[in-house]
Specification:
The chain is an alpha/beta fold and 325 residues long. It folds into three domains: 44 residues, Orthogonal Bundle (434 Repressor (Amino-terminal Domain)), CATH 1.10.260; 122 residues, Rossmann fold; 128 residues, Response regulator (Rossmann fold). The protein contains 13 helices and twelve strands. The strands form three sheets. It has a six-stranded parallel beta sheet with strand order 2-1-3-4-5-11, sandwiched between helices. The longest helix is centred in the middle third of the chain and has 16 residues. The radius of gyration is 25 Å and the shape is elongated. It starts with a helix and ends in an 11-residue tail after the last strand.
Length: 325
Amino acid sequence: MIGVKEIAQLAGVSPATVSNVLNGRTNVGPATKDRVLAICKQYDYHPNIIGKNLKTGKPKTLLFTFSDFDRSFYLEVIHGIHDYADAHDYDLLICTGRVCEKYMHPAMTSGCIALDGKLPSEILDRKAAADYPIVVLDRILDNPYVKSILVNNYDPMYSLVDSLAKRGFTRFSFLGGIENTADNRERYQAFLDALEGNGITFTRDGYIAGDWHENSGIRAAQILLLTESRPQVLVCANDNMAMGAIRTFNANGLVVGRDISVTGFDNNAIAEYNGITTIDIPDYERGYLAAQALVGNIEGEMNKETFRITAKLIERTSVASSSVR
């Protein structure tokens, strides 16, 4: 297996020169640099990044951890993180599940961006440190080395439900995501407050628990099809669940946007293609901002102030223009 010494011999240079080339230093001439890199490519040599990090203590790699391959908005978040990281000479390591914990170490990665509802806050609290800052996109932690970048779920959800109530809708159901997540709690609270502000009574019987996935929407619609007093509006905590409900209603002879209205939250490609009224979250931008905040803290800023991203209402055809009696 080829190493630095062998590459140096083949290139006719010292091992220190090879090291300078591999570390991007500018004290090596172009011809020598090209010769060393050509040999590395020929023999498929890659530096031992982990070993180098352990030696220098200064990796330039951002870690992103998430929990769900089925939700397309993650791709936009990753795109934003990657673009900022790449522009500032940082690599990006992406992982999911319990394996991510072993990479949350300053010898392995420079810091972490977490958007993972299944990752316990205890792990984030324990891993965050002066030499290992963390940015979270789904919670607030009382830790001087953790910064939160959150979506403003409350205001746009309130505006959506308030506008529906003012059109004359009075019978609502709410399809929630995973109940212990901050996103679900904020969206549901805004839903309740908007109804209360319009004098509309809502009981817990109208709440259906989901898990963010399309199958939750299918099950919710099947339940509502069996009820004697079907709601005029099903407010879903995200677009995937809204899509499942819409497909089920349509398959059972209801015209969504006429016989029943359905709303989502996220504004993913599914919502746009299927005309779902929803809340637009700028996912690329929040990924970009998360990487910007993390790199800033890695490089000494240590700004932990919570930052909230504005989301906006997008009205489409899945909601009737006025109440259906």
